[in-house]
């Protein structure tokens, strides 16, 4: 229970804090509270800009004394706004972003505030990498703890599949290392259970050889969507094309040199190809797509760290996302994907992605909390726009798009792709059995439900079960 103003008490936190503590009256406060989704506008009482684990412990102890709600910020990309709280305390990890690469052991030790841009650029000189976020400013910790979908998931699995250990600070300030040998139930839960269990201050990853990578961007007029979708469906063959990541995407064509002027600013359909190999190899793999004579073509070898930021979405837009796993991709499903792609708000930064799963994503389904990873395809409507006046149309487009795909859905969802869609959707992300197991881990490590702003796993669910 709060017994005094947190603004006045901030001086106590500053006294024991190596980093900075910002209140609403401080310069830099508004910039520090801005997150990727401009639709989320909350004013925390304090932003604790941590520089080390001791700062994290001090911030959590202060929140406990004052009764402030806790949000944890890494990259700030949670579409639901999990990294920001109204009137509470933000544990801001962005100053904790160091990365140590051991090229001989093929491991990376990453602090909890690092982004995927930090990670990829540290790995690049060593010819190593792993599955990372499709937007380079996404936080490593948030994406990984929520599962970690990315371009090379079919080759390396989700980001969490390469996770070797997590150093965590619990709500009570206890420092824990979770791995295959220590706190195994917690380690299992951290492979998709999100930020429900504590503050991840350090993550250790297994790295994979990735010496050469290539990028292809192929653009067509949107009216050619049906034939582009059909060709892509035939291209992605389980067991054959795991080196290929990418998507079919409906979007507003960008003003790039390789995009014809008459297509720029208009609704288009594109094939994204991300390949672990040379440009010539990628050209051969994408031959069925190139045979459709795209209007715009970029196909080149490119360092992985540059590929990872080549398709970044701008911050500061209004965001509303969702997703759905698909049982199959029959002709009727393709027809509906095209129909919703053609109704997408345009011109905006909105996108509608059809993503191939399978490969290593499926292989990891047996081990971790997200059991529904055997889906071969995922749809991801990604609404982004500038003007609040467009909220109603943008949100309804995303919801209608998901509703249109429900007949083909497994019923599951990858939670990093969605905002607040209710507890039924959270449970759908894990399945009832895994949700109950996650709740038992939650009861052990966060029984007071301090960390509840992610898609919440409530400890009471374990208490009811027992």
Helices and strands in order:
Blueprint lengths: L5 H10 L4 E3 L6 H5 L12 E4 L3 H14 L3 E4 L15 E4 L6 E4 L4 E5 L4 H8 L4 E2 L10 H6 L7 H4 L6 E7 L5 E5 L4 H6 L9 E8 L1 E2 L4 E8 L3 H11 L8 E9 L14 E9 L3 H7 L1 H4 L5 E6 L2 H7 L7 E4 L2 E3 L4 H12 L8 E6 L3 H4 L13 E9 L5 H15 L17 H8 L1 H14 L13 H7 L1
Parallel strand pairs: 2-4, 3-4
Antiparallel strand pairs: 1-2, 5-6, 6-10, 7-11, 8-9, 8-10, 12-14, 12-15, 13-14, 13-18, 16-19, 17-19, 18-19
In short:
This protein is α+β, with helices and mostly antiparallel strands. 30% of the residues lie in helices and 22% in strands. The strands form four sheets. Strands 12, 13, 14, 15, 16, 17, 18 and 19 form an eight-stranded antiparallel β-sheet that branches.
Folded structure, characterized:
The protein is α+β, with helices and mostly antiparallel strands and 466 residues long. The protein contains 17 helices and 19 strands. It has helices at residues 6-15, 29-33, 53-66, 116-123, 140-145, 153-156, 184-189, 225-235, 279-285, 287-290, 304-310, 331-342, 360-363, 391-405, 423-430, 432-445, 459-465; strands at residues 20-22, 46-49, 70-73, 89-92, 99-102, 107-111, 128-129, 163-169, 175-179, 199-206, 208-209, 214-221, 244-252, 267-275, 296-301, 318-321, 324-326, 351-356, 377-385. The strands form four sheets. Strands 12, 13, 14, 15, 16, 17, 18 and 19 form an eight-stranded antiparallel sheet that branches. Helix 12 (331-342) runs antiparallel to helix 14, helix 15 packs across helix 16 and helix 16 crosses helix 17. The longest helix is centred in the C-terminal third of the chain and has 15 residues, at 391-405. The chain is globular, with a radius of gyration of 22 Å. The two termini are 29 Å apart. The relative contact order is 0.12. The mean pLDDT is 94.
